[in-house]
Design a protein that fits this description.
Layout (H helix, E strand, L loop, with lengths): L4 E7 L3 E7 L5 E8 L11 E2 L1 H19 L6 E8 L4 E5 L9 E2 L7 H20 L8 H11 L2 H7 L3 E5 H9 L9 E3 H4 L5 E2 L4 E2 L1 H7 L8 E3 L2 E6 L8 E7 H8 L8 E5 L3 E8 L10 E7 L5 E9 L3 H9 L9 H6 L9 E3 L17 E3 L7 H27 L6 E4 L6 H11 L3 E4 L4 H13 L6 H5 L4 E5 L5 H16 L12
Parallel strand pairs: 1-5, 5-14, 9-12, 15-21, 21-22
Antiparallel strand pairs: 1-2, 2-3, 4-7, 6-8, 10-11, 13-14, 15-16, 16-18, 17-18, 19-20, 22-23
Helix pairs in contact: 8-13, 9-11, 11-12
């Protein structure tokens, strides 16, 4: 019998990957292509959506060639994506009207300030589960409409489409201008500030408030379920899964029960806690979001803590400061010293996300003395991700009433063993890494495979999960309390930074 596989397309912030998984959830073939990061002005972050589609079309056949298979051996395709990043395009030509605006972009700070004052944070949390922030799609889409007035008229006429990156890719994969399907899954829709969390559909009041014509929006579908069939190199293969990357990682980590949590350490860091079929409303700066929806209609929700800068800080130390030549070298440098020398780095490059939601904050290096050397600074850079995790977990514990007992981790930064020990020490809880670290891709594959019967049920997926490493806390309570207090003092110094951008 010919073996079959599930293909996952992971469209991330810095690259696009195609990964093939077998029935045991093992990686069987992979191809990856980076794309350009565009910074037109301070705080602006953009991507070339056409470049991302070209890269996707390139890595799919490369992954298949890596394994030596054709489309007839692919049971289904799942797509995971960098959330909140969106693009507007002409449905007749398939060309974007502007570059994709990335989730890290902060250009809508003034608009968000207005929204926080009127109608206020509570108005939005009640309807869509999330507060106004530069992070989310709707303020940036409203900004774009304001800057390009003809867009609304073209959208109302049915000539323009909008979507996050899974929407953009699925439209192309299913035919593009030749009948491409315009859909988004419920997890991505829940991150736009335009979807009703109660009805899991576009909210007319929010659409009217942001001035977004419903005609340009995609149809909302479950995270797991056959959406349509692909054309081109994947001709005839069902596209059966679509999910935001962090929800994909939660699913890939098999966190199917309330109280189970994971944190993905990549460009940013994102901690999600499964709250079951209840949408828990946060009062401590967390986000209420959809975790996933299966093809039978069953829906799970999550509380999320979003950290804007984690791995991106290491990249800055490498590319901006040239303190190390490669990302792994930062662990070696940090191990040359015993502690941070009193130095703390708070990487508020694009403001602070959870639990603060302060878009005006800017990064600081605090506690500098002549004693601090490169090793101390490297250690402080790694500790920044650990203490940001503590900020999120403390707030999440208040909201959920369920103290975190163990944290499952994934993402590129988890290969740094020193960082994982730092996280365990700061949290005072075990940190566990799975055998398969590509949990975003795996989660998208699981959702697609479930929809077509490739995997029979959630129990079978749990049996695929295996522990690769565990770090237990070693820091004394007194040391933990002292370091946490100094971290919070450093965070305070990032706030209320003067705005130097006069452009609205």
């Amino acid at each position: 019998m010919t073996e079959r596989f599930v293909l996952s397309i992971d469209q991330g912030t810095t690259s696009t990957r195609a990964i093939l998984f077998d029935r045991r959830g093992r990686l069987a073939g992979v191809a990856q292509q980076e794309h350009q990061q565009i910074f037109p002005r301070p705080g602006w972050v953009e991507h070339d959506a056409m470049e991302i589609w070209r890269n996707t079309a390139r890595v799919i056949p490369q992954a298949m060639a890596d394994l030596g298979i054709g489309a007839d051996q692919i049971a289904a395709v799942g797509v995971a994506n960098q959330r909140e990043t969106f693009v507007v395009w002409d449905k007749h030509t398939g060309k974007p009207v502007t570059r994709a605006i990335v989730w890290q972009d902060t250009r809508t700070g003034h608009l968000v300030e207005d929204l926080l004052h009127d109608p206020g944070e509570a108005y939005f949390r009640e309807r869509c589960g999330i507060p106004p922030a530069v992070y989310f799609t709707a303020p940036r889409l409203a900004w774009l409409m304001r800057r390009m007035p003809d867009l609304r008229q073209r959208a109302e006429a049915g000539d323009l489409l909008v979507g996050t990156m899974e929407t953009w890719l699925i439209w192309h994969l299913t035919g593009g201008v030749d009948g491409g399907l315009h859909v988004t899954d419920v997890t991505n829709a829940s991150r736009t500030m335009l979807m009703s969390l109660a009805k899991l559909d576009w909210d007319p009041e929010l659409l009217d408030y942001f001035g977004v014509p419903e005609a340009m929006l995609p149809r909302i579908v479950p995270s797991s379920g056959v959406i349509g069939t692909a054309k081109g190199v994947l001709d005839g293969v069902p596209i059966a899964g679509a999910v935001g990357d962090q929800q994909a990682a939660l699913f890939g980590q098999t966190c199917f029960s309330p109280g189970e949590a994971k944190c993905t350490y990549g460009t940013g860091a994102f901690l999600l806690l499964n709250t079951g079929d209840e949408a828990v409303r946060s009062t401590h700066g967390m986000l209420t979001t959809v975790a996933y929806q299966l093809h039978d209609g069953s829906t799970a929700y999550a509380l999320e803590g979003s950290i804007a800068v984690a791995g991106a800080l290491v990249q800055w130390v490498r590319d901006g400061l040239h303190l190390v030549r490669s990302a792994p070298e930062i662990e070696t440098l940090a191990r040359t010293v015993e502690d941070n020398g009193g130095c703390f780095v708070v990487p508020a490059f694009t403001g602070l996300f959870s639990p603060y939601w302060r878009h005006e904050a800017r990064g600081v290096v605090a506690g500098l003395t002549g004693y601090v050397n490169g090793g101390n600074l490297a250690r402080a850079v790694l500790e920044a991700s650990a203490w940001q995790t503590v900020d999120v977990v403390d707030a999440m514990n208040f909201d959920s009433g369920i103290p975190l007992k163990t944290l499952r981790v994934d993402g590129g930064m988890t290969s740094n063993n020193l960082l994982m020990q730092m996280v365990a020490d700061a949290l005072d809880a075990p940190v566990v890494r799975p055998m398969v670290s590509e949990t975003v891709s795996l989660g998208a594959a699981y959702l697609a495979g479930l929809a077509v019967g490739y995997w029979p049920d959630l129990k079978g997926l749990r049996s695929n999960w295996h522990r690769a490493g565990q770090w237990d806390p070693q820091m004394t309570p007194a040391r933990r309390a002292q370091q946490h207090s100094m971290w919070r003092a450093a965070v305070e110094r990032t706030l209320d930074w003067p705005d130097t951008d006069d452009d609205d």
